[in-house]
């Protein structure tokens, strides 16, 4: 279970300054002196401001699925709003951790789910939270493009009373693991969103009224988000008074902020290996090696009519990439090779998948056999149909120096098999907009990373290869479409037991390994760093003490 989102081993160079650093610090809330009376023996102190550094900010407060594309956005949804259930503390991820749903029952056929809600939650504006809000979430938010999954295919939603709701589905949903289908999305207030129910995205949502442990105080685009503790939080107020999400445009400025105490912890990146000794030398910073959340891969856009649609070309590229060299050069050795979205330690990982070991001779043999020859003698293979050179665009986000380094290395490797790539590093917002809109044909090949998350919460990631129109809309960057895979994705969502689930996921892994809509590259180890001079109580899970699925540290840290 080591997955993240775009982290680790960023080989030390500065990437870009996202309109931040000094200008941002002039606008961000100033540091405050904390004068707290000494606690009684055994008493946990309340107070303090927790500063968290990010490199990929959100660009909207609108209830858009884009919020889930970044760690910042996921934490905003978990802390300001509330999920129906909580991501479990590792290793107890198969344990149900209640949040707004305190308990539930499922019918024997898996179609009817009865959810029992907490009875003391209120929205930040004082209005009571009820089952009507949950029903509204299912009926409207989950119908907004990008949101929801199988939580869309219901026959009936019945509000039994203020704190009980029954959802009847068209199909049985998986009971092999703890429920994933209804815990993901935040619950939004019906009394605020109802006028916009037919167009949720038209509401700017600037106040972000939730039921969560923190309230939004201020948001400055590309600069910071200022949260304050919800004194009336139904689950008990958090220990810190304030949380500041601060945006930094480069890893260098983020590292300096950690060293100086301007931030207490990173959220969407880890310490680059080349900076490890320097960070370790700071007595106020705790450094730990933990399994990473992120898996990195090369994605092919199969929407435009290019030779990348030919599986032979994709296989050849897989053999033409030296993944061991990528790990050595881009991750300084702090990573492992991967071959699937399933982590190697998971019981759901198929052990005998093809590895596509670096073999340029085999890559050239495949391309020769498929008719991609260098017909004009310029050293670049030609498309036998159009005669055009095999030259493809390659892009990644400039916010991650590791990805930039990986693309640079791939750019150096592929000419050995007669293929050329033209590499571009894009600002994060532009890249993600293009990445999740393959039909716009803006990108052909993309290096990126995703955090499948620990079992059993990783089922969602398979949606990234489900065909558009079959459930992969807004999630599938490759525009890949395989009817058998699409059906298996549905079957997995209905699996009744672990063995049935394993059989399904084994076949899905086989299909992706053969079709290669993406090439799995490496899984970085996460070099976790957090300051210990002000706060204690960190919960350092897979992916570090703060991640898109780990808000436990923010809820539990307290003044020393």
Structural class: alpha+beta
Q: pLDDT below 50 for ≥5 consecutive residues: which ranges?
A: 1-27, 30-39
| Average of per-residue pLDDT values | 88
Distance between the termini: 30 Å
Largest sheet: 6 strands, mixed
Number of helical runs?
14
What can you tell me about this protein's structure?
- 50% of the residues are buried.
- A hairpin with a 5-residue loop joins β4 (101-106) and β5 (112-117).
- It is globular, with a radius of gyration of 24 Å.
- The strands form six sheets. A six-stranded mixed sheet has the order 14-18-13-17-15-16, sandwiched between helices. Strands 8-9-10-1-11 form a five-stranded mixed sheet, with helices on both faces. Strands 4-5-7-6 form a four-stranded antiparallel sheet, with helices on one face.
- The chain has three domains: 21-33 and 45-80 and 212-292 and 526-559, 3-Layer(aba) Sandwich (D-Maltodextrin-Binding Protein, domain 2); 85-202, Dipeptide-binding Protein, Domain 1 (Dipeptide-binding Protein, domain 1), CATH 3.90.76; 295-524, Dipeptide-binding Protein, domain 3 (Roll).
- Residues 1-27 and 30-39 have low confidence and may be disordered.
- It has helices spanning 21-27, 71-79, 131-139, 190-193, 251-260, 276-280, 311-319, 323-330, 360-369, 401-413, 428-435, 483-493, 498-515, 552-556, and strands spanning 49-54, 85-86, 97-98, 101-106, 112-117, 154-161, 164-169, 214-220, 224-229, 242-247, 265-266, 285-290, 295-300, 335-337, 391-397, 420-426, 445-450, 518-524, 526-531, 535-536, 558-559.
- The chain has 560 residues and is an alpha+beta fold.
- It contains 14 helices and 21 strands.
